[in-house]
């Protein structure tokens, strides 16, 4: 099993009150987090953007949602909560792009086309071949989950697990006997 390093961001830091929170875990070789996008019996691997939005989306996983058809090129689903945004106009949308429209609408594109709309990148399907066929022409159930085969696990810290430490003005987390800084490097 690969050695894991915890990455903390403002959204997933352990609060001062010590309530249980989830830490996003990345491989220690700094490889990006990957997730599985499961449609029927077809699984696609997607790379999550190294951003506040990507990390916040990963915190919601696993989840299964019904995605609605729109415009013959995308599926969308409105989340119950908002995600952080950093929207921009990509100009060209690519098949496999996983984007956020507004602050709570997850959009999975299955065709490449030009667009003047603004989105925040969540990530992208690594190889979108067969994505359009798997999604079909109507509404579809899609499951998003962390890809544990790559070592990207998400341990849930119960009350009393993990310890937040302030040292020399820096925040550290002690988890399973190892110290991590907020950038996720083992100390």
Task: State the main characteristics.
single chain; 187 residues; mainly beta; eight-stranded antiparallel beta barrel; three-stranded antiparallel beta sheet; 2 helices; globular; disordered N terminus; disordered C terminus
Q: What can you see in these coordinates?
A:
The protein has helices at residues 52-59, 131-135; strands at residues 4-7, 24-27, 34-39, 42-48, 63-70, 74-78, 92-93, 97-101, 105-109, 113-114, 120-125, 140-146, 163-167, 170-175, 178-181. The chain has 187 residues and is mostly beta strands. The strands form four sheets. An eight-stranded antiparallel beta barrel has the order 3-4-11-8-9-6-5-12. Strands 13-14-15 form a three-stranded antiparallel β-sheet, with no helix packed on it. Strands 1-2 form a two-stranded antiparallel ribbon. A hairpin with a 3-residue loop joins strand 8 (97-101) and strand 9 (105-109). The protein is globular, with a radius of gyration of 18 Å. The protein starts with a strand and ends in a 6-residue tail after the last strand.
């Amino acid at each position: 099993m690969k050695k894991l390093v915890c990455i903390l961001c403002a959204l997933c830091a352990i609060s001062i009150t010590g309530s249980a929170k989830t830490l996003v875990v990345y491989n220690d070789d700094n490889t990006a987090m990957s997730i599985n996008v499961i449609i029927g019996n077809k699984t696609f691997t997607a790379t999550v953007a190294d951003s506040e939005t990507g990390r916040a989306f990963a915190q919601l996983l696993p989840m299964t949602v019904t995605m609605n058809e729109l415009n013959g090129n995308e599926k969308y689903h409105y989340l119950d909560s908002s995600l952080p945004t950093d929207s921009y106009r990509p100009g060209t949308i690519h098949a496999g792009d996983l984007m956020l429209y507004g602050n709570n609408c997850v959009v999975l594109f299955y065709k490449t086309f030009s667009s003047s709309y603004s989105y925040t990148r969540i990530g992208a399907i690594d190889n979108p071949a067969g994505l359009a066929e798997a999604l079909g022409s109507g509404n579809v159930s899609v499951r998003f989950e962390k890809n544990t085969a790559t070592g990207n696990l998400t341990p849930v810290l119960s009350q009393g697990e993990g310890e937040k430490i302030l040292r020399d003005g820096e925040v550290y987390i002690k988890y399973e006997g190892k110290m991590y800084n907020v950038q996720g490097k083992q100390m």
